[in-house]
Amino acid sequence: MKENIITNLFSIKYPIIQAGMVWCSGWRLASAVSNAGGLGIIGSGSMRPNILKEHIQKCRKNTNHNFAVNLPLLFPYSSEHIDIIISEKVPIVFTSAGNPAIWTKKLQSNNVIVVHVISNLKFALKAIEAGVDALVCEGFEAGGHNGREETTTFCLIPLIKKSIGDIPLIAAGGISSGQSMLAAMVLGADGVQIGSRFVVSKESSAHMNFKNKILNSNDGDTVLTLKELTPVRMLKNKFYSRIEEAYLDNASKSDLKVLLGKGRAQKGMFLGDLSEGELEIGQVASMLNSIDSASDIIDEIIKEFNFEKKRLKQL
Amino acid sequence: MKENIITNLFSIKYPIIQAGMVWCSGWRLASAVSNAGGLGIIGSGSMRPNILKEHIQKCRKNTNHNFAVNLPLLFPYSSEHIDIIISEKVPIVFTSAGNPAIWTKKLQSNNVIVVHVISNLKFALKAIEAGVDALVCEGFEAGGHNGREETTTFCLIPLIKKSIGDIPLIAAGGISSGQSMLAAMVLGADGVQIGSRFVVSKESSAHMNFKNKILNSNDGDTVLTLKELTPVRMLKNKFYSRIEEAYLDNASKSDLKVLLGKGRAQKGMFLGDLSEGELEIGQVASMLNSIDSASDIIDEIIKEFNFEKKRLKQL
After folding, report:
1. Neighbouring residues of A36: CB distance < 8 A, sequence distance ≥ 6
2. pLDDT-based confidence at A242, cuts 50/70/90?
3. Is B119 touching A (CB cutoff 8 A)?
4. Is it the case that residue A1 has pLDDT exceeding 90?
5. Distance CA A185, CA B144 (A)
6. Which residue of A116, A169, B297, B303 could cross-link A100, Cys pair, CB 3.0 to 4.6 Å?
7. How many Cα atoms occupy the beta-carbon half-sphere of B27 within 13 Å?
């Protein structure tokens, strides 16, 4: 693979970004991905400030390469997290779920590269206006928190590329292989963000119950739900059946909030409670069938990417 | 473009299939697409038997190339339509929305090539068992009637390809350009089915009001709704607001049926009532900005396809 606008921006070998994911992507996964030539991201959305600091320091000890922190801007600790990111000299931040105008300039003036996650054209234009350095365009098929417009990767990437032009563009949602990476780049992406595949990596801190549930899942087993709160894609389980029942009972927004409660993502993804936990994962879960190291995943993706490039010549 | 398993199966120049669409794709569009090197399809779902017969005969008069008829198997006239398809010696049928086991053998024993539209792996396996000659794999982003699992083109195509292997595979949903055509083929498709882009073609029988509404639409303007009846993707309008209200009022399935009533697709798409009609279109509507002839559309797609293939070498 040749260098491009994304590998140059992040000083990495391959334009493969491991998504920052609550309860799954701590220092161990992030450093492994960065060591393998991609960009590892610490998912700070499940960390208190002291825990984030620890993960950043451990990540730095375990890789000489660049890594990033993912920061949901509506997260209660986001202001403290930003202070830590700056004082620990984290080189790159991926912001999501909030207004990029609030923190982008402060981060950039402290030499932090800022990437913002969007799911529609309106938010992309806002992020550009805020001066972000790159965009992650996340399609409907992606796991975890997601946009309300339900625009898929296949429709979102060309639309943003056509409307915005030359800002570095990272595709997310539905990508787990070199084949899907190449397809995303055909659609106009300069790089890809991969979540689900790294949830089932060896270095992911996801509970083994959750990893096995993913490996055994089929198409149609995930659903984007709780749109009245924050839309989230997760595996259907007993907890989801209760959400379905609540909808049938015409539940209000506050009923849904009570049902969701607190700590469900931790319960499901980190503690392995497959019945009552929230199991955030993308549609691509049905394609996954082995637990590999981050390094083997990236090597395989690059091999597939190059194979597909050659195959295409015959079309 | 080189010939492949799809161009050989249908005896066409390019693996581009124009989707059979109610109220939009009669003989005029189908023959124009077939004359331009693709496969035109007459959408029989909005036609009574005598009208279908007329469209088949006119299509044949206007092209020497192969064309097809799309047949929703649950349609009230499907049995009469099949008799007409056989007696008129239509060479190819695309079946959807129903059990392919019922008609596939009869059609094939009358020298009709049978293609079946699926939206998940389970239905793909059923179609293979029924002996169909090819599959259309339709993603969540596609317009009109659609699957319940909400699996997107980006996730559906590689899954079906990996699980089923060498049956000719046509991707549908989110495809409107040579770029998206190439991306679909990277994901494992042998050809593409394009709907929305042909709805706004010169030869489409869609009402000009509907065409203009599509050209002015943005991302997020379509929605997959009425999942309790037959899921359908359409543009949001006054009629959709009433569906939303009905959901908020906890409408039953029969309430929704009453609200839908009869003739809404005709009203919106054919008669141009943008408020009360059902305006079926895909997410890719937001990418469309001109009304071109079918021949110009296909030429442009092929040009873009070849341009993208060259660009890929630089990745």
Report:
1. A294, A295, A297, A298, A299
2. very high
3. no
4. no
5. 28
6. A116
7. 16
Q: Give alpha helix (H) positions in chain B.
A: 5-10, 27-35, 49-62, 78-87, 104-109, 121-129, 153-164, 178-186, 196-199, 208-215, 238-248, 253-260, 264-265, 294-312
Class of domain A5-205+290-312: alpha beta
DSSP string, A216-284: T--TT-EEEE-TTSS-EEEE--HHHHHHHHHHHTT--HHHHHHHH-SSHHIIIIIT--TTTS--B--GG
CA distance B299 to B315: 25
- Round to whole Å and give the CA distance between B138 and B135: 9
Dihedrals φ, ψ of B58, to 5°?
-70, -40
- Predicted local confidence at residue A38, as pLDDT: 98
Contacts of A250 in chain B (CB under 8 A): 250
The predicted pLDDT at position B165 comes to: 79
Residues A312, B153: C-beta atoms closer than 8 Å? no
Cβ–Cβ contact B134 with A under 8 A: no
Across residues A186-205, what is the average pLDDT? Answer: 98
Residue of B nearest to A250 (CA): B250
> In this structure, how many other beta carbons lie within 10 angstroms of the beta carbon of residue A64?
9
Residue ranges for chain B with pLDDT beneath 50: none
Output the pLDDT for position A117.
98
Report the Cα B194 to chain-centroid distance in Å. Answer: 6
Read off the pLDDT of each residue in A65-82 and give the average, rounded to a whole number. 94
Question: Can you tell me the distance from the alpha carbon of A45 to that of A32, in angstroms, rounded to the nearest whole number?
Answer: 20
Secondary structure of B247-277 as H, E, C letters: HHCCCCHHHHHHHHCCCHHHHHHHCCCCCCC
For residue A265, give how far its alpha carbon lies from the nearest alpha carbon of chain B (Å): 23
Please state, rounded to an integer, the average pLDDT across all residues of chain A: 96
Structure tokens at B179: 């770029």
Token pair, residue A89, equals: 């000299």
CA dist., res. A257 & res. A228, Å (int): 9
Residue spans of the domains in chain B: they are 5-205+290-312, 208-284
How many residues are present in chain B?
315
* Coil/strand/helix, residue A259: helix
Q: Do B154 and A175 touch (CB under 8 A)?
A: yes
Question: What is the token pair recorded at B251?
Answer: 């409408």
Buried b (16+ CB within 10 A) or exposed e, A288-312: beebbebbebbbebbebbeebbeeb
Q: Rounded to whole angstroms, what are the CA distances from A237 to A34, A204, A214, B5, B228?
A: 33, 22, 12, 40, 21
pLDDT value of position B92: 98
Contact B152 A154 (CB under 8 A): yes
Phi, psi of A163 (to 5 degrees): -85, -25
Distance CA B188, CA B182 (A): 10
Q: Could you tell me where the DSSP H helices lie in B111-218?
A: 121-129, 153-164, 178-186, 196-199, 208-215
- 3-state secondary structure (DSSP) of residue B39: strand
